[in-house]
Amino acid sequence: MKSKRVIAAMLSAVMLAGQCISVFAEDENITKLTFGYPTGWENTEQTGSYTFYQPNSKGAIYIYTTDEPNFDIMAGSKEDINDYMLYSNPRTSLSAQAAQLNVSEVEFDSLETYTEMRNNTLYREVEMNTHTFGGTKITVLSYMCTAGGNLYHFDLITDSAESGKQALLNILDTSVYAGDNVPESDLEAEKFTISINVDGRRIRPDSEPVLISGRTLVPIRAIAENLGYDVNWDAESRTVTMTAEGKGDISVTIDADSIVKDGSRVEVDVPAQIIDSRTYLPLRAVAEAMDCRVEWNGETKTVDIFS
Fold first, then answer.
1. Nearest to 145 by CA among 181, 169, 178
2. pLDDT tens profile 213-252
3. Residue 15 and residue 135 in one domain
């Protein structure tokens, strides 16, 4: 499929408490997308893209569609993402970054990738770090989703790790897809209301559980602490560790295909996720790693955990 031309026009409606105004993008096949316009940023229209930039700054946000790569962007490996971002995608490649910052050469440092839910849409998030020959650090922050047969990109390229990040997140948090162009993925999350009981006591997590690929994910702290575990979060490794005296230690890393109990790995169907800035873990797999029994009542939408 060919990349489509995006025609964008500003509307006067104010969004995000006056921080953004709505932008409407419509391609020649009536694929629709609305998103927020960040204050303090200007825009340009180009064939197949919409660009925000800050005057007197090297930061830029690009919103565009591309041909899908030859792998599932939502489930692809880190190596696939690495090759796609660095070489296959002409807008985030090393040469594209060099052109954006008007330098002769850019060298690769690192890349991390996760899945993250924002505004009820699941994105593949990629953070890539590079540097120029003179030592200037460059950050590429990209959010991607598949919608209506297209791969949508929301990319920030900046010489400062924090510059432009909030503007990009504001755009994501106001993005609305319409028609046949609603984001789709085997990992699409459905929020729903269920009751969770631990040994007969009702537990009320501070965020709603989600259902992903038929598996229930929950913000785990409330459940773990009611089962006698201490919960710790390592932001650098993006790992949750749960410990309890006389019980095995359990660790779960975001996007990993297994959980670890006392050094032994147990595969999971759906990995832990960051959803709306909360850490969600697969309930049944974690509870069973805690040697608990889990029962599900589909009629009443109730999970019972017995220690």
1. 181
2. 667 788 888 788 888 889 898 888 889 999 988 888 899 9
3. yes
